[in-house]
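Narrative of activities, Objective 1.

The group set out to show that a structural description can be obtained from nothing but a protein's sequence at a throughput compatible with the screening campaign. Below is one input-output pair from the validation batch, recorded exactly as produced.
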Amino acid sequence: MTQTDLDVGPIDYLAVEFPGAKLTGEALAALVDLTDRGIIRILDLRVAVVTEDGFTAVALTDLDGDGQLDLAVFSGVESGLLDDDDLAESASLVGAGDAVALLVYENTWAGPFVSALRHQGADVVASGRIPAEDVIAALEALETPVG
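Output recorded for this entry:
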């Protein structure tokens, strides 16, 4: 199998701020669900707690420091796409006392589609994201009666 025969979906990243470094687990449960259903594949997941002096990387196995395995399913998830500089850059986006999670993931649902495009000689020439807030505002505007 050659590189061009692989079904590889688009790779995205997210930097997510957790005010007060509070992680409830709700988002993590959704992330596990997306992974379990094969919609995405986690390539990297790193977390840091920001302090006045910088940041401290947090082990993914015990995010809340209670000695219990919180994210065993993501333990060892490391593709090498993220490094300490990326984590430091993300940490600079949030305030002291907050946490930041940096996630790199493959949109595995799109892999077969991208491969089919490639096999017919097509090429993606642009892609992008529309912020969720913009979509919500547009949908709310559609529901609001005019006049």
